[in-house]
Amino acid sequence: MSNMLIVGAGNIGRGLLGQLAYSSGYRPVFIEASPETAFRLRARGDFTVSLVAQNRETYRITDYGVLEPAQTLEIEAAVVSSTLAAVAVGGRHLPEAARLLAPGLGLRTNPLNILVCENWPHAETVLLDALIVRGVSTDAFSCVRTSVERMVRGVDDTLDLVGEGGQTLYADAASWRGPFPDLRGLLFCPDVDALYARKLYSNNAGHAALAYLGALAGKTYLHEALELPGVKTCLEDLLTAAGMALCLEYNFGRAEMRAHLDELMHCRFANRGLADTVQRVAREPLRKLARGERLVGLVELLARHRLPTRSAACIIAAALRYQSDADAESLRLQEMVAREGAAAVLRNICGFGINDEVYRECLSFYEMTGKAGFIDGFSENHA
């Protein structure tokens, strides 16, 4: 059995990559930095991935390997022997992933294709540069850009996971070296940038709308937020504008885009079986408010095509209000707002200029989000 090396045994590492590998006849070999997670994976010897859509499919993953960063010789051997690899560690940890992969890459006789599965701007280039800095020849590997479509969450305090059924992994065909692998659920395409942008500015931006507006309304789950008329109105407006901008920017067919947005609204966002939480999706608001990310990047795309930015501005304003004791980044955001004001965050984190229309829209919505009944009255206020 061929090995698929997976750096990161988190939700995407196990709930997407591990499941696709195991179901396709590969043996997943995880490199996991958390000693607790690595110990539990070894001790238990299995975990389940349940995919929920119209039907529920459950996969029991049993034959896998687990390595920790201190096991340098074992990692080196795994890099040399693996048929393909993937990285799902979070963008800020990509340099550490490069450190782990570099020694083994220099010993390979053929290049290793590395699927870079990160919601992070230019993640494949970040990993590429980090490997080059460590002296690895580009003949030894290829960092393959992907678009991760499946959402995955953990189940309580177990190793088990729940994910979206019917969602897959897109990869850049042009950067893959050698024959494509028989990995069911991995689809190679000629323009993964367009698919990544579609995901970021519709799937991820829509999730952000439900999370930050849902937090304002005191909701626990995303599907609960969607049931609020004001939230639904904002989300529909956001997706309509995003869909138009994506069609203009990337030449998506309008019927294709409409079908994608309808699936988001009526199937994926409304998926009660997924039971995705506001807290999980809203975490790390400073990162999600940065330039090029799901909200500010969408604003830039909308402005470029002279499309309305009000719904995006409303969600950004709601994000500026987000606070959770379980999320250190949200606490830093609130410290910044208290110290410098929301306007400073819009300038310094989002990159808006004081003369930008969206800057004024965000400040106006920020004032409104601080008032009781904002969500209930949003449909009327937004008309």
How would you describe this protein?
It contains 17 helices and twelve strands. The protein is α/β, with parallel strands linked by helices. The chain has two domains: 3-190, Rossmann fold; 193-382, N-(1-d-carboxylethyl)-l-norvaline Dehydrogenase, domain 2 (Orthogonal Bundle), CATH 1.10.1040.10. The strands form two sheets. The chain has an eight-stranded mixed beta sheet with strand order 5-2-1-6-7-8-11-12, sandwiched between helices. Strands 4-3-10-9 form a four-stranded mixed beta sheet, with helices on one face. The chain is globular, with a radius of gyration of 21 Å.
Properties at a glance:
383 residues; alpha/beta; Rossmann fold; N-(1-d-carboxylethyl)-l-norvaline Dehydrogenase, domain 2; 8-stranded mixed beta sheet; 4-stranded mixed beta sheet; 17 helices; 12 strands
| CATH-assigned fold name of the largest domain | N-(1-d-carboxylethyl)-l-norvaline Dehydrogenase, domain 2
The total count of helices amounts to 17
Distance between the termini: 59 Å
CATH superfamily of the largest domain: N-(1-d-carboxylethyl)-l-norvaline Dehydrogenase, domain 2
Low-pLDDT parts are none
Mean pLDDT: 95
- Please identify the top-level CATH class of the largest domain: Mainly Alpha
SSE string: EHEHEEEHEHEHEEEEEHHHHHHHHHHHH
Overall shape: globular
Question: What is the β-strand count?
Answer: 12
Radius of gyration: 21 Å
What CATH architecture of the largest domain do you see? Orthogonal Bundle
Q: Give the strand order of the largest sheet, numbering strands 1, 2, ... along the chain.
A: 5-2-1-6-7-8-11-12
Described by strand count, sense and barrel closure, the largest sheet is: 8 strands, mixed
